[in-house]
From TrEMBL:
Superkingdom of origin organism: Bacteria
Keyword Transmembrane: yes
Residue ranges of the region described as Disordered: 303-329
Transmembrane segments: 333-353
Signal sequence annotation: 1-26
Compositional bias per record (Polar residues), positions renumbered to this chain: 308-322
Organism encoding this protein: Kribbella antiqua
UniProt name for this protein: Esterase-like activity of phytase family protein
Keyword presence, Cytoplasm: no
Keywords, ordered alphabetically: Membrane, Signal, Transmembrane, Transmembrane helix
Length: 381
């Protein structure tokens, strides 16, 4: 009787301990799961554009009043000349670019002998090379696109037959329309952001050292943020990009997965251009619109509101070795205890089946009353 009771108590105790182990394991995993969910939510929120971008204050800097510039479709800050910006006309013009100052006056016109189709963007790298991007393709039927390069001149004056280089590119997934060329400040790496009137565009990288012989294949890096982008520029830190839309700006944190960290609306005519501001600090940008007598404004770079930008700690990460070790140990202990409890219960049943236990108890009680020796249990063959 005492042995049976002891075995039963042992089984009950082991089952209780296994339950405690289960609860402890769940409690250990719950904070990790909750933290991972919160981190994933924070990262997802960072990838989403603001639903209601804040209007940004603008300061009119100048108006382009030159009859040669009827459709200014891009803007890029000079690396060689203080207060000078390079611009060009949209499709339909010849191969030429213009240097303008911060009063809107044209200081130089540079012509080069190339057959351009739809020039949509302009950029200047850290070495003073001007990139003219013939990447427009409204009907998405071009087999290839072209980017031309010319050096910033030694003097700001009109020039004909400027020496140039031509680079041919093709997309890996078919033709796309695009109006945005980006040049990374630290490496001069070229990127193209395609323009999608419907759906989502893409971010494509040129080979690090493109060839002038043959066609260079672009590499798709990631989907573009939501928006119809008409221009863009890296900020001097190389970690942020400002993309222009028809009605606003988007600040993008650059990296393996570029994501929008802030947006702002800009009240103006059809937005077509954006460039780093005159100070070069990266705190402001210039924005322009297409058309004759177009105004250029200076605005602050959209920045995330306080507390809105996720920190590195919010990035989801796998469990550490210590966490996984603790979880594994509690898991093993739980099953050991459950197995021991089941074993004790089975031994109790086998050794003392219900009917036999009752007979032995009665015989033991009779022996006690009559003074005889109690019977010894024997296993059945």
């Amino acid at each position: 009787m005492r042995l049976r009771t002891a075995l039963a108590l042992t089984a009950a105790t082991l089952f209780s301990l296994s339950g405690t182990a289960i609860q402890a394991g769940a409690a250990t995993r719950a904070p990790q799961s909750a933290a991972g969910s919160a981190a994933a939510s924070a990262q997802t929120a960072a990838l989403l554009p603001a639903a209601d971008p804040t209007p940004v204050a603008k300061k009119k800097l100048f108006t382009i009043r030159d009859e040669r510039l009827q459709e200014s479709s891009g803007l890029a800050k000079s690396q060689k000349y203080e207060g000078i910006y390079w611009t060009m006309n949209d499709s339909g013009d010849t191969a030429r670019v213009f240097a303008i100052d911060t009063t809107g006056k044209v200081k130089a016109e540079l012509r080069f002998k190339a057959e351009v189709r739809d020039v949509e963007a302009i950029a200047v790298d850290r070495d003073g090379t001007i990139y003219i991007a013939d990447i427009g393709d409204n009907k998405a039927n071009r087999d290839q696109i072209e980017i031309y390069t010319i050096p910033e001149p030694d003097a700001l004056e009109d020039a004909e037959n400027v020496r140039y280089h031509r680079y041919d590119f093709e997309y890996p997934d078919g033709a796309h329309d695009a109006e945005t060329l980006l040049v990374e400040p630290g490496t001069n790496q070229l990127y193209i952001v395609t323009k999608a009137e419907k759906g989502v565009g893409g971010i494509y990288a040129a080979p690090p050292d493109p060839s002038r012989q043959g066609t260079n294949e672009l590499t798709k890096l990631a989907p573009a943020p939501t928006g119809t982008f008409t221009d863009g520029t890296f900020l001097p830190d190389g970690q942020r990009v400002v993309l222009r839309t028809y009605t606003g700006l988007a600040t993008v944190r650059w990296g393996e997965k570029p994501n929008v960290i802030a947006r702002a609306t800009v009240s103006a005519d059809q937005g077509e251009s954006v460039a780093v501001g005159p100070s070069g600090s990266g705190d402001t940008v210039l924005v322009g619109s297409e058309g004759s007598n177009s105004a250029v404004y200076q605005v602050a770079v959209p920045a995330p509101k306080s507390g809105a930008q996720p920190s590195a700690s919010t990035t989801p990460k796998a469990s550490t070795a210590d966490d996984s070790g603790d979880t594994s140990k509690s898991h093993n202990l739980r099953w050991i205890l459950i197995g021991a409890a089941v074993f004790a219960f089975i031994i109790t049943i086998i050794t003392f089946p219900p009917g036999r236990r009752e007979r032995l108890d009665r015989m033991a009680e009779n022996a006690r009353l009559t003074g005889q020796s109690p019977p010894t249990p024997h296993r059945r063959p």
